[in-house]
Design brief:
The structure holds 2 protein chains of 2 kinds. Chain A is mainly α. Chain A has 2 domains: 7-271 and 281-383, no CATH class; 458-556, no CATH class. Chain A has a 5-stranded mixed beta sheet. Chain A has a two-stranded antiparallel ribbon with strand order 1-2. Chain A has helices at 7-27, 35-56, 58-62, 64-71, 80-95, 101-128, 130-141, 144-149, 156-173, 177-191, 200-220, 234-249, 258-270, 293-301, 304-316, 324-330, 343-359, 376-401, 409-428, 442-449, 464-470, 484-492, 521-531; strands at residues 277-279, 282-284, 475-478, 500-503, 511-515, 538-542, 545-552. By secondary structure, chain B is α+β, with helices and mostly antiparallel strands. Chain B has 5 helices and 18 strands. In chain B, strands 5, 8, 9, 10, 11, 13, 16 and 18 form an 8-stranded antiparallel beta sheet that branches. The chains are: A mainly alpha, B alpha+beta. The interface between A and B is large, with 88 and 72 residues.
Chain lengths: 557, 313
């Protein structure tokens, strides 16, 4: 019997999510805005203006010219999440809700991070039990790179929420007609969040086919098959009708020239330019990319204990992922059997598909772990199961020796097994993307291996104290990978004075920043020639590894 | 599915049954311990400062400094940058130097670590300092560091030595145009000047920028310099102009008193390429570096050269 999920579970999920949002909210100020966030801020402000115009004159705002004015910037990504940024910004403009402007843009995605924990708990509780669910949610929250991305006004954590929610809705839709409609709506919202949602129909189709074949085999062998399970693909009809409708409805840019614009959007992502990415000492900038990349990066960035529990959980359910007969043959002593919905196949498909897509040699490797971050909730669900299994063993053992400790045993086990992830996550802040776990040898070990040290230029935030002290009367800074928009947000947030200005002329800047990514080496060399010295005035380090180097123009001396 | 995960056996767990628990505990404790270990191995600033002060005190002309691992290079230059000029930071080999200092952390060798035994080893906290005495340098003349005394021409037209404020730079812009250079024009990149190039391996190379032009050679001539027995020439292109391997080659010819003595055909993908040209048996001569390309677009050639005599023991 699956546990009956009730209001107590939702209260617990809500509290978990709320606690995470509070944690993100109070730590967000430590992380300067990243490249992509700067673009989404601008898009959010454009959208906000359009929403205001729409409230005044819906007809004019909806005209081709009105839509072009409001929605043409950053139309390589759908509008849903940026619209939330825009609404949050409008609310902040009116009611001054947030202590800083950046939080106005970041808050919606933080809330989605909180909702995601709630969802993982509920999903995990339904599939593997409450203890597994709560451990899964916590272990996801405590993946250092997830914690970093959860702070940002970007789409990465929102798409994890939408993908996980779509999978959950699909899974529920196999047994419930109401969820069939809900699934279609949610899939549309996922499409309107980011293009990661494109791979979901393939996963669902494979799973559904597998499930139907399994049910046929079950019936042949006289196994009980739940009458509520539907082998008619209602979910597909719902997805096909509601998904595109919501996708287009939520994105005014598609309201005119709809098909050509959808075509442009698809082509943009299927023929995306290649970025530079350092991997084992080599700077990759064109395909073929190494197949191992997403797997090694997962190994190097997800806490080892979480990974180990995930693998243990997967092994525990291994037989349930096989056809019945094959499972009996390979593991005759196991009492693990697949459920009617073949839930394990669905979860493992959702865990592997994002990794496999990025592992394809032709897929650009352009942003590190965030491109398969949608796999992590499913990894954590199995980590939750792994935890449940080992905690049960511990509970029995402890309970036999110390009966009074029996009830505390799971809590103690959870605290012990989550402590590495908690420590790594705490230590990763605010360097998120520079962080590597123990299996990589930590940050210095990853540097030894020649792994990418950062991207997006967000570490500029960590050198602001130096820059402010060095330029009390103002000056100019060459920002390397930090965009002017991200710098402007630092000013709007009051973190830098107005007289510290970005410069596009490296040689004439007062200070030059070099964010240490392998392919930025030329900026170092240019600074040496410009300033006639190889000596920096400041090096920001993280566990002893250079993250940002700063050069000073000799004219300031 | 929750039913299949429930434990029904209340009996004393066998070793096999409790093993997963202890394995996970061991992994968690190992992860916690590794985290502490990694952090404890990070050198303090005071270690770097003490090591740098020691090297600075004993530094002599002709010394070279490197660091292991490579990624610690900004920290080396933070503490010893005053001793690391472009020739050291962008060296092509160790020939110009007579002693080699290495600062090392994490037990990692530097890229330039010579073979043979160190002359000195000192430990400053977590920073190790080693020195190798390389012996007298075989270099007789460094063309890269003496560009101002050279004459430069684009075809028959001489280029002029100019000095102005440095501008520009930035990602994807390639080697920075130096303040002082032989300007040939008319385009701003048609000059011959001392700079630092990011080679195909993204390593710094102290070199002479000498961009070819269509239809005529660009020639840099050093008059009456010591020849030694050979000239060692390195050349490469700005990494972003070479890495796609889609452009035609560049020719670099070495001439002594107008006679060709060596030639490098640099093709995309060659990286920082080396040739040796034998010198005529005479103590001095006029050495020219001639750069040509049939299609000079994005042929951002940069070279470094020295004349040398004999081998170091």
């Amino acid at each position: 019997m699956r546990p009956r999920i009730g209001w107590r579970d939702h209260t617990l999920g809500f509290v978990l999510g709320l606690a995470y949002v509070v944690l993100l909210f109070v730590t967000a100020g430590d992380i300067a805005m990243s490249r992509d966030e700067g673009f989404y801020v601008r898009a959010g402000e454009d959208y906000a203006r359009w929403f205001s115009d729409f409230a005044e004159d819906a007809s004019a705002a909806s005209s081709p010219e009105g839509v072009e004015a409001g929605w043409s910037f950053n139309h390589e990504h759908p509008a849903l999440i940026k619209s939330l940024f825009a609404l949050s910004w409008l609310a902040h403009e009116k009611y001054e809700l947030y202590p800083t402007d950046s939080l106005a843009f970041r808050f919606p995605a933080m809330v989605m991070g909180g909702l995601l924990l709630w969802l993982i708990y509920i999903f995990g509780a339904r599939v593997f039990g409450r203890r597994a669910g709560i451990f899964a949610a916590l272990s996801f929250a405590l993946i250092p790179r997830v914690f970093y991305h959860a702070h940002l006004n970007a789409f990465d954590v929102p798409i994890v929420l939408m993908v996980t929610l779509a999978v959950y809705a699909y899974w529920r839709a196999l047994r419930s007609r109401w969820w069939v409609i809900g699934f279609g709506l949610i899939y549309g919202l996922a499409l309107a969040t980011k293009h990661n949602a494109w791979i979901l129909p393939g996963i669902f189709l494979i799973h559904f086919t597998w499930m139907c074949l399994g049910i046929r085999a079950d019936r042949r062998r006289g196994r009980t098959v739940s009458a509520r399970i539907s082998v008619r693909p209602w979910w597909m009809i719902s997805m096909a009708i509601l998904g595109p409708a919501i996708f287009i409805a939520s994105w005014p840019w598609l309201w005119h020239d709809t098909l050509p614009r959808i075509g442009w959007y698809i082509r943009f992502h299927t023929s995306h330019e290649y970025y530079n990415m350092e991997y084992f000492g080599r700077n990759y900038f064109r395909p073929p990319f190494p197949i191992s990349f997403p797997f090694v990066m997962t190994l190097f960035t997800v806490p080892l204990t979480t990974l180990a529990l995930g693998v243990y959980g997967l092994v525990q359910r291994g037989r349930a992922m096989l056809p019945l007969r094959l499972g009996e043959k390979l593991a005759p002593e196991s009492d693990v059997t697949p459920d009617t919905s073949r839930t394990d196949v669905l979860l493992v498909g959702c865990l592997l598909a994002p990794l496999v897509v990025i592992a394809l040699p032709s897929s650009p490797i352009f942003g590190g772990t965030k491109h398969w971050i949608t796999a992590y909730p499913f990894l954590c669900l199995y980590a939750g199961l792994g935890f449940y299994k080992v905690a049960t063993i511990f509970r029995q053992r402890a309970g036999r020796k110390l009966p009074f400790a029996r009830h505390l045993a799971p809590t103690f086990a959870a605290a012990l097994l989550l402590s590495p992830a908690a420590l790594e996550t705490m230590h990763s802040h605010p360097f998120g993307l520079s962080h590597y776990t123990a299996i990589a040898g930590g940050v210095p070990g990853a540097a030894d291996h020649g792994m990418n040290r950062q991207f997006w230029g967000f570490t500029t935030g960590s050198v602001l104290p130096f820059l402010k002290e060095a330029m009390p009367d103002g000056g100019t800074v060459y920002l390397n990978d930090t965009t002017p928009g991200a710098w402007a947000m630092l000013r709007r947030d009051g973190l830098i004075p107005d007289n510290l200005r970005p410069s596009y002329d490296l040689a004439r800047s007062d200070y030059v920043l070099v964010h240490h990514e392998k392919h930025f080496a030329e900026v170092d060399h240019q600074a040496w020639v410009a300033f006639g010295s190889t000596a920096p005035v400041h090096v920001l380090t993280y566990d002893g590894v250079p993250i940002v180097t700063i050069y000073e123009n000799p004219r300031r001396r | 599915m929750a039913d299949s995960t429930q434990t029904t056996d209340p009996a004393r767990p066998s070793l096999r049954r409790i093993l997963p628990w202890w394995l996970m505990v061991a992994i968690a404790l190992t992860e916690l311990g590794s985290h502490a270990l990694v952090r404890s191995r990070v050198p303090d600033d005071s270690d770097w400062e003490a090591a740098a002060a020691f090297v600075d005190e004993h530094f002599e002309d002709g010394d070279m400094i490197g660091v292991g691992p490579d990624w610690a290079d900004p920290l080396l230059r933070l503490h010893l940058g005053q001793r690391i000029d472009l020739a050291i930071a962008g060296a092509s080999d160790l020939a110009p130097f007579e002693r080699y200092w290495e600062l090392s952390i994490r037990g990692q060798p530097s890229r330039w670590r010579p073979e043979g035994e160190e002359a000195l080893v000192e430990q400053f906290g977590r920073v190790a300092v080693r020195r190798w005495d390389l012996g007298p340098s075989p270099v007789r003349f460094d063309l890269t560091s003496n560009l101002q005394q050279a004459k430069v021409s684009q075809g028959p037209r001489p280029c002029t030595w100019r000095n102005r404020a440095v501008t520009g730079g930035g990602l994807g812009r390639g080697p920075l145009e130096p303040a002082a250079r032989h300007f040939c024009g008319p385009q701003s990149w048609l000059f011959v000047g001392e700079t630092v190039n990011e080679d195909l391996e993204l390593l710094p190379r102290h070199c002479i920028w000498q961009h070819p032009v269509a239809g005529q050679p660009v020639t840099t001539t050093y008059e009456g310099i010591p020849l030694g027995d050979r000239l060692v020439l390195y050349a490469g292109l700005y990494s972003e102009h070479e890495r796609m391997e889609e452009h035609p080659p560049v020719r670099v010819r070495v001439e002594v008193d107008g006679e060709p003595v060596g030639e490098m055909i640099h093709r995309d993908g060659d990286g920082w390429k080396r040739i040796e040209a034998a010198m005529p048996d005479q103590p001095r001569g006029d050495v020219s570096i001639v750069v040509e390309a049939d299609a000079p677009h994005l042929r951002t050639l940069c070279w470094a050269a020295t004349t040398r005599e004999g081998e170091r023991r």
